[in-house]
Specification:
- With 111 residues, the chain is mainly α.
- The chain has a domain of 68 residues: 434 Repressor (Amino-terminal Domain) (Orthogonal Bundle), CATH 1.10.260.
- Helices cover 45% and strands 0% of the residues.
- Helix 2 packs parallel to helix 5 and helix 3 packs across helix 4.
Length: 111
């Protein structure tokens, strides 16, 4: 059996950028926020119905959030949902890190 030569391409750290999305940074940010929201919902053991009541949205929209179907959610809306779960959100603006080509946005979680 002949061996195939396979090549591996190193990613950029943003899968959406690697897939060629024009709004890659926004998609990455929304995904990071949704991951944290889903963690909070799990920690609180909230059902989708209970989360929908807190967020003021229909339960099917919470299902979309839980399944990372984020087209209907802006970053601002996801940030608002986090505050509705009794969390503070702090935005820090600092000089660009030397190892980034352009400005960088990330979600950090404090204990």
């Amino acid at each position: 059996m002949a061996r195939k030569n396979e090549s591996v391409e190193v990613g950029s750290g943003n899968v959406f950028k690697d897939l060629g999305y024009a709004d890659a940074d926004e998609r990455k940010l929304r995904t990071q926020l949704a991951m944290r929201l889903n963690d909070l919902l799990k920690e609180r053991k909230l059902t989708q119905t209970a989360a929908a009541q807190i967020f003021g949205i229909p339960q099917p929209h919470v299902s979309e959030l839980r399944n990372y179907k984020l087209s209907r959610f802006s970053s601002e809306r996801l940030l608002h949902f986090i505050t509705l779960l009794d969390k503070d959100v702090e935005i820090v603006i600092r000089p660009k890190a030397a190892n980034h080509e352009a400005g960088h946005v990330s979600v950090l979680v404090a204990a």
